């Protein structure tokens, strides 16, 4: 898999003023010279200090009373004075030195700022960089204004009071019966009425049956009720995928922090660099061209003539209203947009397209299609329904029909990157990028017989955002169809880059989008759940963000390749020095 490059290989400084602490310091000893426990040493010096102060004061009072000159001191008084100074210095050193130092040596504000590798560039970019906050932080949007900030709730529902699930004797009996095959593993949730316990028992039974350990796959800390009957069957744990943040991504005048769930080193950093280049150039424009989910059943007739009759009936504009009334009964959000048919002999493939509000829409469109098929059966009783999906849809497979007709959201996103930014942020030139795009993304892909793959790595960004936001990652296949175009503009000084993506299939309700982590990521983007104002607006906005992030990813990776940095950065960021040769148990 191709992967992008990070723009800076600098070592980031600590963001706090550092107080040097010896690594091997033993906190229980005051010092090597005085090898007593710390609390004892302090007690000794405290006692000494106050004892000698008391002694000297009483001696002083005595001298005043007996009119003895103060400079006449006895041996015990000399010892007391020495002890006073010694204990005073110790106590000042221990409790007071940091305070005195903090007054004398105030930390320079510079130490709070992480240094950049290339100061020269940073000075220039700092002037131009209008981004309000460092990449990855919460964002202020200039346009349009964001709703008033809601209080941030840090603690979500606590799924597990106990950190580790403990199996009881009763559980042990159930495990044994699952292992013996008496209790089906899939029935545990309904039998026990406790999804977490069901998962724990299934997991233990699985380990015993296979003789393989699942340690490393966490069980605790997940809400198993939330996936029941909707997201995953027979769970035994969950896989952890880190979520990185690229951004702020400036699209259509708004800034977004883009969550990306990935284990590919460089990917987030590279997309982040692309976001920076876009921001410094004034932001990208993302336009939604079409919004319609498709489903295409396959029906068969006795003759090709009968299949053609149905095709003509379905495509006749006079019948559209009747068909849409039937179709639209399935949901208040699903609205039939069009029907396109393809014949293969006696078989007819009927591609229905409908709007689906904020849902990705596969369930919705399927229900509508079923309504229409049932309705058609009256006028076409010889119609044999082969399958509700006949692959002309086409879902989760590379297919020209999606590339040409679009599926889900069709989006085009563009930006003009200033020549300066190409040089200073992307470390390449407009000329090299345009040439590389022509030879790699266009000609190279044509030579490879690509279908929708006229890009550098759109699927990298799409997959990472899909996983983070609870989309169906299998739809990455067609959602990543993308043609990346580059052109020199403004007398060759600047770069016009665009990504055209005809099949972005996303939703903000249904499926995995309602799970806690995924929903948090949608919330970060400001597109969580159903849009209150306009049904579908959240899902459409998410599609424009996906296209914007792909634009950033394309910019950065293409620049890395143009500058010949790809392999170098991969070796640095994608190859851990850790020993990965150790086998699993
Ligand atoms: P999909 O069709 O993507 O598989 P689901 O059928 O799982 O999605 O989820 C869509 C459900 O959410 C439907 O029951 C629908 O009525 C409901 N819903 C609520 N608000 C909206 C909205 N704004 N847009 C679309 N669906 C919505």
From TrEMBL:
<dbReference type="InterPro" id="IPR023076">
    <property type="entry name" value="HMG_CoA_Rdtase_CS"/>
</dbReference>
<keyword id="KW-0472">Membrane</keyword>
<dbReference type="GO" id="GO:0016126">
    <property type="term" value="P:sterol biosynthetic process"/>
</dbReference>
<keyword id="KW-0812">Transmembrane</keyword>
<dbReference type="GO" id="GO:0005778">
    <property type="term" value="C:peroxisomal membrane"/>
</dbReference>
<dbReference type="InterPro" id="IPR009023">
    <property type="entry name" value="HMG_CoA_Rdtase_NAD(P)-bd_sf"/>
</dbReference>
<dbReference type="InterPro" id="IPR023282">
    <property type="entry name" value="HMG_CoA_Rdtase_N"/>
</dbReference>
<dbReference type="InterPro" id="IPR023074">
    <property type="entry name" value="HMG_CoA_Rdtase_cat_sf"/>
</dbReference>
<keyword id="KW-0256">Endoplasmic reticulum</keyword>
<keyword id="KW-0414">Isoprene biosynthesis</keyword>
<dbReference type="InterPro" id="IPR004554">
    <property type="entry name" value="HMG_CoA_Rdtase_eu_arc"/>
</dbReference>
<dbReference type="GO" id="GO:0008299">
    <property type="term" value="P:isoprenoid biosynthetic process"/>
</dbReference>
<comment type="pathway">
    <text>Metabolic intermediate biosynthesis; (R)-mevalonate biosynthesis; (R)-mevalonate from acetyl-CoA: step 3/3.</text>
</comment>
<dbReference type="InterPro" id="IPR009029">
    <property type="entry name" value="HMG_CoA_Rdtase_sub-bd_dom_sf"/>
</dbReference>
<comment type="similarity">
    <text>Belongs to the HMG-CoA reductase family.</text>
</comment>
<dbReference type="InterPro" id="IPR002202">
    <property type="entry name" value="HMG_CoA_Rdtase"/>
</dbReference>
<feature type="transmembrane region" description="Helical">
    <location>
        <begin position="36"/>
        <end position="57"/>
    </location>
</feature>
<protein>
    <recommendedName>
        <fullName>3-hydroxy-3-methylglutaryl coenzyme A reductase</fullName>
        <ecNumber>1.1.1.34</ecNumber>
    </recommendedName>
</protein>
<dbReference type="GO" id="GO:0004420">
    <property type="term" value="F:hydroxymethylglutaryl-CoA reductase (NADPH) activity"/>
</dbReference>
<keyword id="KW-0560">Oxidoreductase</keyword>
<feature type="transmembrane region" description="Helical">
    <location>
        <begin position="78"/>
        <end position="97"/>
    </location>
</feature>
<dbReference type="Pfam" id="PF00368">
    <property type="entry name" value="HMG-CoA_red"/>
</dbReference>
<keyword id="KW-0325">Glycoprotein</keyword>
<keyword id="KW-0521">NADP</keyword>
<dbReference type="GO" id="GO:0005789">
    <property type="term" value="C:endoplasmic reticulum membrane"/>
</dbReference>
<keyword id="KW-1133">Transmembrane helix</keyword>
<dbReference type="GO" id="GO:0015936">
    <property type="term" value="P:coenzyme A metabolic process"/>
</dbReference>
């Amino acid at each position: 898999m191709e992967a992008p490059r990070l723009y800076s290989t600098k070592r980031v400084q600590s963001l706090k003023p550092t107080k040097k602490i010896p690594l091997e310091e033993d906190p229980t000893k005051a010092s090597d010279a005085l090898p007593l426990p710390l609390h004892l040493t302090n007690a000794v010096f405290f006692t000494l200090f106050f004892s000698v102060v008391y002694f000297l004061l009483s001696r002083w009072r005595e001298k005043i009373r007996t009119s003895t000159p103060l400079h006449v001191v006895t041996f015990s008084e000399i010892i007391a004075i020495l002890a006073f100074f010694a204990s005073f210095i110790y106590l000042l050193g221990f409790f007071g030195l940091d305070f005195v130092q903090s007054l004398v040596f105030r930390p320079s504000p510079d130490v709070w700022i992480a240094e950049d590798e290339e100061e020269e560039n940073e000075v220039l970019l700092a002037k131009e960089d209008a981004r309000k906050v460092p990449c990855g932080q919460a964002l202020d949007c200039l346009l349009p204004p964001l709703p008033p900030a809601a209080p941030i709730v840090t603690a979500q529902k606590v799924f597990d009071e106990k950190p580790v699930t403990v199996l009881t004797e009763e559980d042990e009996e159930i495990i044994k019966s699952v292992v013996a095959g008496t209790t089906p593993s899939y029935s545990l949730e309904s039998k026990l009425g406790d999804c977490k316990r069901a998962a724990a028992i299934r997991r233990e039974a699985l380990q015993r049956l296979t003789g393989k350990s699942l340690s490393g796959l966490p069980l605790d800390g997940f809400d198993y009720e939330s996936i029941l009957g909707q997201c995953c069957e027979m769970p035994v744990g969950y896989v952890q995928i880190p979520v990185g943040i690229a951004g702020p991504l400036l699209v259509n005048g708004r800034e977004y922090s883009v969550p990306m769930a990935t284990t590919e080193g460089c990917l987030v950093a590279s997309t982040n660099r692309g976001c920076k280049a876009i921001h410094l150039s004034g932001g990208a424009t993302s336009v939604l061209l079409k919004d319609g989910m498709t489903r295409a059943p396959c029906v068969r007739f006795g003759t090709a003539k009968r299949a053609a009759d149905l095709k003509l009936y379905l495509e006749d504009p006079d019948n559209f209203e009747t068909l849409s009334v039937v179709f639209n009964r399935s949901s208040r959000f699903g609205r039939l947009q069009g029907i396109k048919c393809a014949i293969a002999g006696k078989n007819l493939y009927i591609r229905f397209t409908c709007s689906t509000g904020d849902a990705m829409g596969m369930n919705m469109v399927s229900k509508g299609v079923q309504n229409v098929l049932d309705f058609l059966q009256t006028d076409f009783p010889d119609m044999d329904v082969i399958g509700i999906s006949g692959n002309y849809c086409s879902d989760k497979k590379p297919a020209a029909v999606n590339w040409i007709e679009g599926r889900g959201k069709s989006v085009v996103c563009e930006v003009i990157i200033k020549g300066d930014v190409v040089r200073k942020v992307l470390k390449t030139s407009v000329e090299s990028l345009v040439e590389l795009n022509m030879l790699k993304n266009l000609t190279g892909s044509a030579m490879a017989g690509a279908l929708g793959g006229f890009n550098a790595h759109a699927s990298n960004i799409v997959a990472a955002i899909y996983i983070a936001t609870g989309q169906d990652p299998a739809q990455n296949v067609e959602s990543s169809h993308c043609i990346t175009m580059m052109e020199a503009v403004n007398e060759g000084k600047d770069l016009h880059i665009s990504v055209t993506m005809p099949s972005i299939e996303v939703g903000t309700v249904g499926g995995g989008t309602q799970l806690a982590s995924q929903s948090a990521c949608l919330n970060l983007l400001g597109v969580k759940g159903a849009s209150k104002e306009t049904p579908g607006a959240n899902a459409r906005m998410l599609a424009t963000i996906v296209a914007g992030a792909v634009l950033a990813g394309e910019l950065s990776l293409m620049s890395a390749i143009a500058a010949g940095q790809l392999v170098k950065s991969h070796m640095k960021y994608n190859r851990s020095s850790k020993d990965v040769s150790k086998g699993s148990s």
